[in-house]
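**User:**
My hope is that you can spare some time for a protein that puzzles me. This is the protein in question:
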Amino acid sequence: MTARASGATSVPVAICAPEHRQAILWAAILASSMGFIDSSVTANALPAMRASLAASLPQAQWFSGIYLLALTSLILVGGALGDRFGTARGFGMGIILFVVSSLGCALAISPETMIVARGLQGVAAALMVPGSMAIIGRAFPREERGAALGLWAAASIATASAGPILAGLCLMVDPVSGWRWIFALNLPLGGISLWLLARFALADQGRPGVPIDYIGAALATLGFGLVAYGLSAETGESLALMAVGFAVLAAFIVWEARCPAPMIRLSMFRVRRFSAINLATFLLYFAVTGIGFYLPMTAVSAWGADALAMVAAFLPGALMIATLSTRMGKLADRLGPARFLVCGAVLVALSQAGLAMTAHEALYWTRAVPLMWLSGFGMALLVAPLTTVVMTSATDADQGAASGINNAVARAASLLAIALMGRMAAAGYGGIGADTPGFGVIAATPAHIAATGVGFSHIAGLAAIASLASALVSAWGLRKPR
């Protein structure tokens, strides 16, 4: 993006022959599906993964946390690497690394090996996610690009929705090791995608002159990693680790302000709408990810639900997003996005407040499921308008940068939510004993069920506050000037 702005020679638009565009589109869909499936199945399968690998709660948090850390820190660099070394080449390398790391997840024998493999998956996804969109952009002419990207987005939502179903089916067949098959499913998906790419993509040399902000990527990774690890570490180490992490993040901001080719152009945040929508995104995804990660763990470990039952809570919301987003986007264009962002976030906050107030009842089907439907409807109201505001808050030259920054903000929020809310859950749960084996551990004693309810109520309460704050930020940032 920086090279384009400075007038460097652009790459050719076409990356395949016109008759092969659909094959390239399916390569992008299949590859991105791997990342979306794995991101949605982890929380659902987490209790079984913990039991099989004998993982503690902090280790289980890092099964997802390390993936999000790598993706958050490297997604902007991943796009630049694709520009420099070739879109198809960078995309293909991401697929290969994702398949190899998925095999590592499927064969993991300890929490440590799972964490390493998930981290490699995050690095691979940082190449695949921007690569899948970029290769579609170069395969299709401008007049057909919107429809192709729309199909890619719809397929992404569908595969994310299929994740909990796949996890439930695999765990029904094998409650102990069924989670391993979830990761193994990436091997055929990745293989087909690679074959389509190798068969139909044209030679792509890239642009050797495009600079890469390696220092910025290293500082972001170290800073976010120290903060997240500090949130899950022992109390004595926590404050020191987080202090060092925030100091490194401050150094990252200073570096981005002075770097000739930064990952993030800080000048974009001078626009109030752009700053506000990214803060609202952070708060909302902090809340939604926290509930999405810890509700399955809570319901499976203490409320008597199984992995397949999680579909009832999460699938209707995903379907509402898929079916209503286009209509909400058109209405937001006509009526303005602010009311949709505010109303949607308020509905999400009400859902999470309801979860906080009813957690002590341990009633999954009559309390948690209807409240998650309400949250899904709220997200359906705001997903499309949020994307619209992100893109309309930036200039035409900054469209790609704006999308990348917003994506990175959402991933950073998810990473910090998993780390912070895990600490809150453990604190609310209380001491470990014969009848209280720990938050997220499967047990049926009354003391364990009660302690789990307290821990989850703390999570849901914080999520409700964050979602309400997101609504307030949107109302402030998108208000019309007098």
Summary: The chain is about 80% helix and 0% strand. The first helix runs from residue 2 to 5.
